Structures are given as structure tokens and as C-alpha cells.
Amino acid sequence: xxxxxxxxxxxxxxxxxxxxxxxGISGAENLDVMLMDEVGQIVLRRRVPKCAVCGSPxxxxxxxxxxxxxxxxxxxxxxxxxxx
Length: 84
Ligand SMILES: [Zn+2]
Description:
With 84 residues, the protein is of the alpha+beta class. It folds into 2 domains: 1-47, Pemi-like Protein 1, Chain: D; 48-84, no CATH class. Helices cover 24% and strands 24% of the residues. It has 2 helices and 4 strands. The chain has helices at residues 17-22, 70-83, and strands at residues 31-36, 41-46, 60-63, 66-69. The strands form 2 sheets. It has a two-stranded antiparallel sheet. Strand 1 and strand 2 form a beta hairpin. It is elongated. The mean pLDDT is 92. Bound molecules: zinc ion (ZN). Zinc ion (ZN) binds at residues 51, 53-54, 56, 68-69, 71-72.
């Protein structure tokens, strides 16, 4: 799926509403902007939170800006109990 958009003098473009809706963006949200200079492309990627340990996107808790899933949090907790 693609469309042609005009970038303004400040570098802004509008992502079509139907595209935002298709990937679940309904309001303001941070996106990763990646320059693929070897192929002359700029790629936008939705930032989906993932567990910093196993990469799972499910059952997350946020700690100091990082995410950890319930299973990994339990494993870390068990390690701490063994070491005490
Ligand atoms: Zn995890």
C-alpha cells in the first residue's frame, strides 16, 4: 500500500488517516524514524512496547521507562529470593 504525499518546507507530512487506522494509531504517538540511506528511504515504525528481557509484547509493566513482562518479572524476583 502506498500513496504520494508532499513534504512541507519544515519536513512535515501527514500520514493518511486510513493508514493510521489500519495500524491502530488513533492519536498522538511517538514513531521511530529510520533513515535507510543506502536505499534512499525513510521508514516510520510504530513503537510497540516489548519486554526488555524476552521481547514479548504481552502483560507488560513499565519500570523507569523500560518494559518487562509478568513472566520475566517473576523470574527476576525468584532470582533475587535465591540470592538473599
Ligand atoms: Zn519478558
